[in-house]
Amino acid sequence: MGRSAVDAISDIIPVIASSIAAANSLEEWTAPAKPKASQQWQAGWDPTVYPVPKGAVLIISPWNYLIPLTFIPFVGALAAGCTAALKLPELVPATCQLFAEILPRYLDPNAYKVINGAVDETTHALELRWAHIFYTGGGRVGRIIATVAAKHVTPTTLELGGKSPVFVDAENGNTDLTIAARRIMWGKHLNSGQTCVAPDYVLVEREHQDALVSAFQQVYSDFWPYPDGAMSPQAEISGFPTPAHYERARVLLSRTKGRVAVGGKYDDARRRMEPTVVADVTLGDALMEEELFCPILAVVPVDGGVDKAIDIIRSRPNPLAIYIFTDSEETKDHFLRRTQSGTVNFNDTFSQLMIPEIPFGGHGESGYGAYQGKLSFDTFTHFRGSINVPPAAEPYMRGRYPPQGENALQSAVAVEESFVIPDE
């Protein structure tokens, strides 16, 4: 892949942080909860919620961010007390083999397994009965997993992807275009755009498109100040895992009717493509057909501002993330109330993943379920409710036993009438 050392280390940091946070919080997370009964006469029933492990779980992870997307959910499964099998991606065999060798040194091999292989191995694993299946990857396979899981009514978490849009609100100076371009370009170039929450396309008022493109051009020069720009070896941009992934990106670039405004170069020998901004992209363009998952960023000029941008986003499947660059509280409120997505990030890209206290997950076609922080623990935990009804509560029970006469009916009506309906 040719990723930089900084990017590689950045994959490990959140796993370490998640592990430490889980270890420090384990006593709190696993403690039985004692909710207060809403009815006073039930207070002595000792209502309790016990967090219990779901059982044996299957975690299927992708190649693009193998370490965090495998081990952050795995930390949650460990903390919950589950046993687990990790189905690792076949596209990075050396790393997967390393994990298969290392894991048994530190964890019970009878409780925690690494499954390497391709489609056959995944298919076999899915035929087994699991307490939970956690999948990160593409929507096509996600649908297959959901269908297979239904056979055993297995709960699943699907972390998928989609076309995560960006809206740049350049009206009335609401956005610093240089800062916006810098943050969008940074989020797009990570792992050469092969990130499930990468900015996919940018919506901007038509009259401000040229100014935004100029900002992207300047940012490109600032980020990669080398004779060959981002294609220089010093740039350390990531490559593609297979020739097929690389060829797909090249074909996308060749099919667009838009204008290549930044970048556009590629290297067949190294399977590299530089961060590329394509302007004047229409909604029917090849770049708008599916998630790009490559270093190409489409800029779609719109007429109609916030309302038009929201209409475009709403007309498409719910994305994993929406990025809004604006200082207008009114614009922020419009996007929060009128769009749906896994997450919303105002004035940056990607950084919502850096805060484990907020959920990370999809909505609609970008997946379902969420994790990070305690949510990772909750995902693999069954919260088992319990009560203990003592003999002393028998006077309250008489009305439920047959024969039920007029007194039982009056008691039921009295309970019904005791509820206070809140005013509007």
TrEMBL record:
GO terms for molecular function: aldehyde dehydrogenase (NAD+) activity. One of its GO terms (cellular component) is cytoplasm. PROSITE patterns: ALDEHYDE_DEHYDR_GLU (PS00687). GO terms for biological process: aldehyde metabolic process. It comes from the Eukaryota. The keyword Oxidoreductase applies. InterPro entries: Ald_DH/histidinol_DH (IPR016161), Ald_DH_C (IPR016163), Ald_DH_CS_GLU (IPR029510), Ald_DH_N (IPR016162), Aldehyde_DH_dom (IPR015590), Aldehyde_DH_NAD(P) (IPR012394). Residues 23-383 form the Aldehyde dehydrogenase domain. Pfam families: Aldedh. The keyword Cell membrane does not apply. Keywords: Oxidoreductase. The active site is at E159, C196. Belongs to the aldehyde dehydrogenase family. This is Aldehyde dehydrogenase. The lineage of its organism: Eukaryota, Fungi, Dikarya, Basidiomycota, Agaricomycotina.
